[in-house]
Structure formats: C-alpha cells, structure tokens
Design brief:
The protein is mainly alpha-helical. Helices cover 69% and strands 3% of the residues.
Length: 231
C-alpha cells in the first residue's frame, strides 16, 4: 500500500521555540521542510516498510543500515550547533566513530603485516651476509694452513741438506769430459754432443738427469769445455 492511500493525522508536540526555529532553518538550508524531515525520522525509527523492502530487492540488514547511515550523516548531523545535538545524531556519531575505528584497526594490522614481511627479508639478508663472511674466513684460514705446511716442509728439506753429516757423506762431483759424461750416462760421446746441440740447456739437463744413475743433471760449461753438475 502506498503513502497516498493512507490516512494522515495531524501530530503536535511541545518543543523549545528556539530549537524549533533552528530545526526549520536547518531543514530549509538542506532543501527540504521540517514536516518532511520529521516524517523521515519516524520512518527511520520504525524501520523499513514492506514496500521499501520489496523495492530494494530484499537486501540484508547490514547493507540497508549502512545505506541509511551514509544518507543520515549528511542530512541530520548538525555541525553548526554541537551543544543542541539530538539523541539520533549522537547515535549516528557513535556508529561513524566505530566504523572509523574498525577501518583504522584494519589498516594498522595490514601495515603491521607488511612491516613484518620487510623485517623477515632484512633478517634473511643479514644471515646470508654473515654466512658469506664466515665462508671467507674459513677460506683464508685454509690458505694460511697450506702456507704453513709448505713452509714447514721447505724448512725440513733445507735443514736436511744443510746438515754437516750429510755434507760429509756427499762427495762433490767433479766436472767431466764429454767422454766421461758419456760413460756415466751409458751412451756414446756422439749422442751426448748431439743432444747438447739439439736441446736447450734446461732440457739437456733434464735429459742427463734421466740417464744418470744417481739422477743428477749435467750442464755444459763453454768456458772450460767440460760438463758439470747442474746447480
């Protein structure tokens, strides 16, 4: 049933003259009248009629309440005179404050989650950097150990060759003629001469070392014309 088919009844109530005038002025400034505004307040208080419920297609209570809050904030929230706010306005303010609080909490939680993700990424990067630094330290330690072992081995060899008893039992080899070197190496003089001419001095020393029964290398001294142990 539409509003035009209903009977209307004149209503009266007592109200402070100053408040009533302010209310009329406020309604006029919003492009409506005091009577229309009061009727809307009555509809808001009583709830939706069956006609309105059918018109919006059966939306749930939360959507209808949210729609009314948005419409009522602009129309009934009086900001020019806060000292004379009505109970309805106070209720709307309270609902708006609760909505703002929920939105703030949601944004705070979202920012907190984002911050936590950034912190976790930073912690992971720090761990990787510490692991890389530790691996570098281990590599440097391994190199130092290898150098130390090599030096110890060289010192041991040097000490052995510098030992006086070793020197006493190691006779100094005398230079040899080509005939003498050929006899020592077990080859002909012609072979010795041929290899000396053909091979560079380092390779000739190595060739002699492979033939010598004591594993000595020999090199040719052009000044003396003799073959002497390679130094």
């Amino acid at each position: 049933m539409s509003n035009t088919g209903r009977k209307k009844k004149l209503a009266s109530f007592n109200c402070d003259q100053r408040k009533w005038e302010q209310f009329i002025a406020c309604c006029n400034s919003k492009g409506t009248t005091a009577t229309a505004t009061l009727l809307e307040f009555i509809d808001l208080y009583l709830g939706d009629s069956q006609d309105k419920l059918d018109a919006i297609g059966g939306n749930d209570l939360d959507k209808r309440l949210d729609s009314k809050i948005k419409a009522s904030v602009e129309k009934y929230l009086v900001t020019s005179d806060k000292s004379h706010s009505s109970p309805t306005n106070e209720t709307i303010k309270a609902i708006c404050e609760r909505l703002d609080k929920l939105e703030s909490e949601f944004l705070s939680e979202s920012n907190s989650n984002q911050t936590t993700a950034i912190d976790n990424l930073a912690n992971l990067e720090q761990k990787v950097e510490r692991m890389a630094a530790r691996m570098t330290q281990l590599a440097e330690a391994i190199i130092k150990i290898q150098d130390y072992l090599n030096n110890q081995q060289k010192r041991g060899q040097k000490s052995y060759y510098n030992n006086s008893s070793f020197k006493a039992h190691t006779p100094r080899m005398q230079p040899l003629t080509e005939e003498g070197l050929a006899s020592r190496l077990g080859v002909s003089e012609e072979t010795v001469r041929k290899e000396r001419i053909k091979l560079p001095p380092p390779l000739f020393v190595a060739w002699c070392k492979g033939k010598d029964r004591a594993g000595l290398g020999w090199e040719f001294n052009e000044n003396t014309g003799l073959y002497q142990p390679a130094s």
